[in-house]
Amino acid sequence: xxxxxxxxxxxxxxxxxxxxxxxxxxxxxxxxxxxxxxxxxxxxxxxxxxxxxxxxxxxxxxxxxxxxxxxxxxxxxxxxxxxxxxxxxxxxxxxxxxxxxxxxxxxxxxxxxxxxxxxxxxxxxxxxxxxxxxxxxxxxxxxxxxxxxxxxxxxxxxxxxxxxxxxxxxxxxxxxxxxxxxxxxxxxxxxxxxxxxxxxxxxxxxxxxxxxxxxxxxxxxxxxxxxxxxxxxxxxxxxxxxxxxxxxxxxxxxxxxxxxxxxxxxxxxxxxxxxxxxxx
Length: 280
Hints:
5-stranded parallel β-sheet, 280 residues, alpha/beta
């Protein structure tokens, strides 16, 4: 099967919290975002004519629920301007007023579509979220608002901001990377497993809600399995993992390679038929 042509440009936004920021060494050393290695890999793999831009929007410690994820993302995908539905019409005929109202409604729809697809929009949002929500409260007293199901529902809202009707942006959703505490606490381990299972099963969730689309989609890169904590040999773990939660610079480079490999797989049309249904 022939591969699709390489894009002439590729605009990517890596969006998330401390893992996306490349936080390590307790903040005492400069960050080392995986985006750097991602751009190197894409530059080497795609034709020299492809203009690649990789930007970062990362705030360590941020959460989806009771955090700033949504407001931060909205800066890249602004809401349409408020409509002026209270416009008055001259008291001519009812038919003329109805025609004028229909014309305004159509204009508003056109304006909304344009507002949802700003000229500076990204082709891809690589989005990781939910890790801080999973660990933000005591493991024995998690409320329903911070349950994996509630976190996943909020995460899907972020995806929908990116893939709104008329938008050309696609999302590469990253599973939540492991932590050392996940092995030590069954409650934490179960919460991580539940959220990541929901992210992996996004296709089934989309189908159940009837929100599948053919154009604007959400794809998954399973970085929890690609860059494991407990599933890694002890010596390699010391080189890749920093403090049981964050990665070392070498680890972030590895993460960038895994994310880049997954993105290239999708761009080359090898994402897998079943994962093409992971579209909201």
